[in-house]
Design goal:
The longest helix has about 45 residues. With about 170 residues, the protein is an alpha+beta fold. The protein has seven helices and four strands, in the order αββααβαβααα. It has a four-stranded antiparallel β-sheet with strand order 1-2-4-3.
């Protein structure tokens, strides 16, 4: 299957809000080549398919932070309606309510990206946990043997820092 939208374009539309990786209704509509109004109407007609862990509406603070951090959302500053944010589950459900071939094909790409991001986060967490365990072992060894291991600590901290998962988008504060 040919790539309809580059992975980079999709990645740049993923945000971290309420501790979840989400995509906004207007970005999804753009990717699916439908109007945001059409996407939201389809969701409202099938609202029971979108529980809170699939989709939520941004609150005022989240909307203000989104507008402040992303120039492309300046038009939302005076909007009367906050956008919907869709988790990976919500994106998957959208393929059931949007029937165009383009929407379904792009949806598959987005779901694969969310899956890849989840896998990467899990893999990095395991590596960070192992490094932390090693660091604690070194600290105990140094304490037991009155050794200075400052350089080892610095190197372990460096390894821990470079294996932290990178945040995509921004994190909205409450």
């Amino acid at each position: 299957m040919e790539t309809l939208v580059s992975t980079e374009v999709i990645e740049n539309k993923v945000f971290l809000i309420r501790g979840q990786k989400v995509m906004l209704d207007r970005d999804l509509a753009m990717l699916y080549e439908v109007e945001t109004k059409v996407l939201n109407q389809a969701v409202k007609r099938n609202f029971e398919k979108f529980p809170d862990d699939f989709m939520f509406k941004l609150n005022d603070n989240e909307l203000k932070e989104l507008v402040a951090n992303c120039d492309r959302f300046k038009s939302l500053k005076h909007s009367t309606s906050a956008p919907y944010a869709f988790t990976d589950y919500g994106v998957a459900m959208l393929s059931n309510v949007l029937k165009s071939k383009k929407a379904i094909a792009v949806n598959i790409q987005i779901i694969k990206l969310f899956s890849k991001l989840r896998t990467m986060a899990i893999e990095h967490k395991d590596l960070r946990d192992e490094l932390l365990e090693m660091k604690n072992a070194f600290i105990n060894y140094a304490r037991d043997n009155n050794l200075e291991l400052e350089e080892i600590y610095r190197q372990l901290d460096y390894l821990n820092d470079i294996t932290k998962p990178t945040q995509i988008g921004f994190k909205a504060t409450k």
